[in-house]
Amino acid sequence: MTWSLIARNPEDGAIGVIVASRFFACGAAVPYVSRTAAVASQAFCNPVWGTEGRARLTAGENAEDVIADFAARDQGQAIRQAHMMDAQGRFAAHTGRDCVDWAGHLMAADHSVAGNMLTGPQVIEATSEAYEKSATLPFAARLITAMQAGEAAGGDKRGRQAAGLVIHRGEDHAWLDIRTDDHSTPLEELARLWEVAQERYVHFAKGMPGRANFSGHPTREGIDADIAATEAKRIAEGRASRSLAVDK
Question: 26: how many CB neighbours lie within 10 A of its CB?
């Protein structure tokens, strides 16, 4: 029902999972990300592959060992699909023999792609190739661009409905978590949300507390100035805000 991409950004170690599907709210069902590891559980999704897998990978277990254990324990493994990245950056994947065609996975040195109910293997191949070729983009944009290439190559053979993107930057909480649950062009909508995030959210996120700094940046010093500078630059370039928000 889905294809997804897991990757780690070589620049700052951020970990991301992006997913698209002709299935409602796939962004809530598929990605499981921590500060050091990630799992995408899909097809006839078993969420425990995600929750237990994330915990075990974060604790330092090998991705191949975890996914082999899940396949051995789960009586429904033939209809499951999952791929994951452990804390050492190693990838592993499982595509059950009864997943609906086309189904399969692809693992590269720094990312993995897996999908089922796709128009063909070209979907994950195009996703992977686009990810590799877009290294100059910001990480979130790179993930979205890769998935858009997979969509252009055929995507989910049933159509489009939902997409989601989760990125962690070394913390247990997400740095970015955006979703579109029911939309005619979900990846385009995800790209719009990422553009809107540039207006205020990414500046606010700079001051978020973390495990090493419980208070974070507890004042607005610098944040409002960055927001104002971004808005001024957008206006000077003649670009309208992509936000749908309504001010009172």
Answer: 28
Of 37, 25, 6, nearest to 115 by C-alpha is: 6
Same domain, 11 and 50: yes
Model confidence over 201-220: pLDDT tens digits? 999 998 899 999 999 888 88
Q: Judge whether 11 lies within some domain.
A: yes
Over the stretch 83-94, which tens digit does the pLDDT of each residue have? Answer: 999 999 999 999
Q: Are 120 and 65 members of one domain?
A: yes
pTM of the model: 0.96
